Amino acid sequence: MTSQDGSPILRMVAWFTLPLTLLVAGRIFLQGHDLPGGGFIAGVMAAAAGTIYLLAFGTKKAVKVVWWQVAAVGLLISLATGTVPLLLGKAYMDNTFLDFHLPLLGAQHLPTATFFDLGVFLIVLGTLMTIFVELSLEKK
Amino acid sequence: MNHLIAVILVPFITAMVTALLNGWPRLEKAVSLLSCLGLTAYVFWLTGYVDQHGIQVSMIGGYAAPFGIAFVADRLACIMLCLSMGVGSVAMVYSMWTATTTQQKYFFYPLFHVVLLGVNWAFITGDLFNLFVAYEVMLIGSYGMMMVGASKAQVRQTMKYVAINIVGGSLFVVGIAFIYATVGTVNMADLAVRTAALPPARAGMVTVASLVLLVVFALKAAAFPVFFWLPDSYPVVPPGVNGYFAGLLTKVGVYSLLRMFVMVFRQDGHEMATQILLVMSGFTMLLGVLGAMCQWDIRRILSWHIISQVGYMVMGVGLSANSAIAQMAIAGTIFYVVHHIVVKSSLFLVGGIAERVTGTQQLKQMGGALDIAPGVAGFFLIAGLSLAGMPPFSGFMSKFVLLRAGVTGGNWVVVFVAVITSFFTLYSMSKIWNYAFWRERSRPWAGQSYRGMMVPTGVLIAFTIVLGLFAQPFLRLAADAADDVIDPRAYIQAVLGPGSWTPSLTEGKGEPGTSLAAWDSVAQASPGRLEGSVP
């Protein structure tokens, strides 16, 4: 499928929905831990944005990313997050909160589990995108 | 001992790193080797440490038991970990010589590490639901491993293997759900405390649930009557990995039987399961060896022998119902597991070399391997005799302990079956010897080099000789491990903390109403543990 195959209407819609979907995914990712949300569901939403992209603009650019490697890196990030407390002499996957101050954004309260969630996000995104890209290449 | 997690963390990280290194086989091999040898050294050190300093526990995320997930290293778990990583390293080195370019391209090394991850996980976890997760991880790795290369035969056999294991996995979850609904915990130490204190009216439910788990573990261990999947599926796995699969995967089932049916389930009427196991073991031994006798494919013969040998180990678990011989039976089982994993893996590795030398798996077309590769023939002779239980190899000692337990307990029927099976095993091994090695060469030599594969195989062969000649320290360790399993007080106190002990456990029978009291004592102990002060 080349970019010419997609419908112009879908491409137009995609221009608006893609950034919105990614924004919502980012919001849901950040509100995890305390509210419903987190890495898994945000990854699914980002992958949904990915499918819209595939439908509207074709697979040309998407195949350049080796998506399963994104998943592997995500898994490594998650595992590494758990390892940090281990190296500090605590239990594996022990967690704590980072309180720090950012200019403009003010005081931040960040659970270290967020990094674990980032890994989960990449795993889900990588896995789903591998499947979707492979499926859209199937047509050729 | 928070670094206990290394036994699953290292293979996990290695799997991901080798996956990312896909395309650089030399780097993949180097990382795999480093990871395997390093972890092997760690688990051997851990075994020594646990043997001296007692059971080590790590709570994931720092949440206290029984609410958090416990990783527990007792002697039994450590022995199994040593076997898993030792044989894993050997199979890994062996595979580096046999893995084809296609296999390497389709993630041979990452999948191998995923299998290691699952197996190690099953041994180290102290949580029933976690055991299920470990099973699934192990299975996913093995599905991938069987499919590497995706030939027609592989796809056909893997489909069967996947189907049977999905049934097993579903039953496992059903069993756990029953147990959780009745007893209210999945932590193994807590389960042991609470099943012992269950009133008889509710104990029946746990017995039913435990029988569901018995089916699952028997399926995994390939015991009668659910062994049919094994002889078809193992021959399609690449030879080096086949050695590991043959040694370890079914033994995860045996280990689970030991852990759950000897240590954990203590409710009224739990002896029923061990009685069933004893009957199953006789059939498993006999039918397994009869199946082996009528096969002519070297890997299928060896696969049928796995089933037959599993029978011996299940027999040990079955004999443990009689408390007079429980320690001997369980120690015999553990020793048998050690012997079997080493010998069976080495037999598969030797079989793989014989295949490479003669260029076929069919026994009738093999022949003359003695002329071409006398070293391999020697290895086979040692491993084969050891499997059949000839002294001075490890098979003799392991069978001796089990049979002695059986004779002492007066279980003549199963002892008789075990001895008969041993004879048949000897027949089956001499059949392979006669056809593959002793006979005149009937085909031109396939001419593939096999020298590199001899070293890892030799390590295992050397171990079976050591295990046979110097059995005493290993038997001592097995007996201590058996004590830990039969009398789980040390295990429970290590996991739940001191003060979690309930006297009803020693009696093995609970009065109606004691279940709540038992739970109270645990609940009272918990907040104290959470704050770090021991009541």
Verbal overview:
The complex is a heterodimer of chains A (140) and B (535). Chain A has 140 residues and is mainly alpha-helical. Chain A has one domain (8-137). Helix content of chain A is 64%, strand content 9%. Chain A has four helices and two strands; from the N terminus they run αααββα. In chain A, strands 1-2 form a two-stranded antiparallel sheet. The longest helix of chain A has 25 residues, at 113-137. The mean pLDDT of chain A is 86. Chain B is mainly alpha-helical and 535 residues long. Chain B has one domain (2-497). Chain B is 76% helix and 1% strand. A two-stranded antiparallel sheet of chain B has the order 1-2. The radius of gyration of chain B is 23 Å and the shape is globular. Classes of the chains: A mainly alpha (140), B mainly alpha (535). At the A-B interface, helix 3 of A face helix 1 of B.
Unreliable runs of chain A: none
Instruction: Give the tally of structural domains of chain B.
Output: 1
What percentage of the residues of chain A does DSSP assign to strands (E)? 5-15%
Percent in helix of chain A: 55-70%
Would you count the extended β strands of chain A for me?
A: 2
Average pLDDT, all residues of chain B: 86
Radius of gyration of chain A (CA) equals: 18 Å
What portion of the residues of chain B fall into strands of 2 or more residues? under 5%
Subunit organisation of the chains: heterodimer
Tally of DSSP helical segments of chain B: 23
Terminal Cα separation of chain B, in Å?
22 Å
Structural class of chain B: mainly alpha
Gross morphology of chain B is globular
Helical content of chain B stands at over 70%
Number of strands of chain B: 2
Structural class of chain A: mainly alpha
Low-confidence stretches of chain B: 503-535
Specify the overall morphology of chain A. globular
